[in-house]
């Protein structure tokens, strides 16, 4: 949450909280659905006694940016972007990569600035790929300083599926090798940003990406960056944000929903010799 308010006004935030609707006997929202939050943690400015009593989130915010609350859901969620990678090592010192990316969210949403980074062998050389034939969308480049292929897609519409292929020379490959099929399941960070300002200026939300250190030590993972605006995986909604002041305090409340990539999980699903 970002607050740029004068004085110390009290704020009240309403969410589509299932427990609150059940406790107060209110009807669930006509649009959307109520969600059941678990392991809720609040910033120290929130009045916990009020929340425990009637699920009202009441607080006097500090100036600037802070995390008001965090929560967890039990609902199982499909990976938003599903990645499958097939790596084939052939005789004749060459290796082929086939990467398939599938958006598993609704068509009305789009992931922006998608970047898929595929590690390759340090001694890989003579890359062969081109946009159109080798990649069904976006651009593909070889970054030797990172020992990786970088596949960039400016806009990835929900429900779509795309394919990218690349060939490399590989001096260290001798004789018959294996096919490795990998599946990458990216976790996501879904959040909503609340902004209370006295002027319409604000800085953009920085991207957050986390790759576990132990995974990097064992095997460089395929990493994915993306951002889906106006979308939350959890389905959480801000019903209202009120300033409780008798003096008729004037302010501009603003809500931004956004989903960003989180941790990367890498899993081998099948290996066989060729």
Automatic annotation (TrEMBL):
Gene3D superfamilies documented for this protein: Mu homology domain, subdomain B
Principal location class: membrane
CDD domains attached to this UniProt entry: AP-1_Mu1_Cterm
GO CC annotation: clathrin adaptor complex; endomembrane system
Domain MHD: 1-267
Key words of the record: Membrane, Protein transport, Transport
Localisation per UniProt entry: Endomembrane system
Gene Ontology terms: biological process: intracellular protein transport; vesicle-mediated transport
The protein's name in its UniProt record: Mu homology domain-containing protein
Organism: Jimgerdemannia flammicorona
């Amino acid at each position: 949450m970002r607050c740029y308010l004068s004085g110390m006004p009290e704020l009240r935030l309403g969410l589509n909280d299932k427990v609150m609707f059940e406790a107060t006997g209110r009807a669930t929202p006509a649009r959307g659905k109520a969600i059941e939050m678990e392991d809720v943690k609040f910033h120290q400015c929130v009045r916990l006694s009020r929340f425990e009593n009637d699920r009202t989130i009441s607080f006097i915010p500090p100036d600037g940016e802070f995390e008001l609350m965090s929560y967890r859901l039990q609902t199982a969620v499909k990976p938003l972007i599903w990645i499958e990678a097939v790596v084939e090592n052939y005789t004749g010192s060459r290796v082929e990569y086939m990467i398939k990316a599938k958006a598993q969210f609704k068509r009305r949403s789009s992931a922006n600035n998608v970047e898929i980074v595929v590690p390759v062998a340090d001694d890989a050389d003579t890359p062969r790929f081109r946009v159109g034939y080798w990649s069904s969308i976006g651009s593909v480049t070889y970054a030797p300083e990172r020992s990786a292929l970088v596949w960039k897609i400016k806009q990835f519409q929900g429900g779509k599926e795309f394919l990218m292929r690349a060939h490399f020379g590989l001096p260290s490959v001798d004789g018959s090798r294996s096919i490795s099929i990998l599946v990458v399941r990216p976790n996501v960070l879904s959040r909503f940003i609340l902004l209370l300002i006295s002027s319409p200026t604000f800085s953009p939300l920085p991207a957050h990406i986390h790759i576990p250190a132990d995974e990097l030590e064992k095997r460089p993972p395929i990493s994915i960056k993306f951002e889906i605006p106006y979308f939350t995986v959890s389905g959480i909604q801000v019903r209202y944000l009120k300033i409780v002041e008798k003096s008729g305090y004037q302010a501009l409340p603003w809500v931004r929903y956004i989903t960003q990539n989180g941790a990367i999980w890498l899993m081998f699903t099948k290996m066989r010799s060729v």
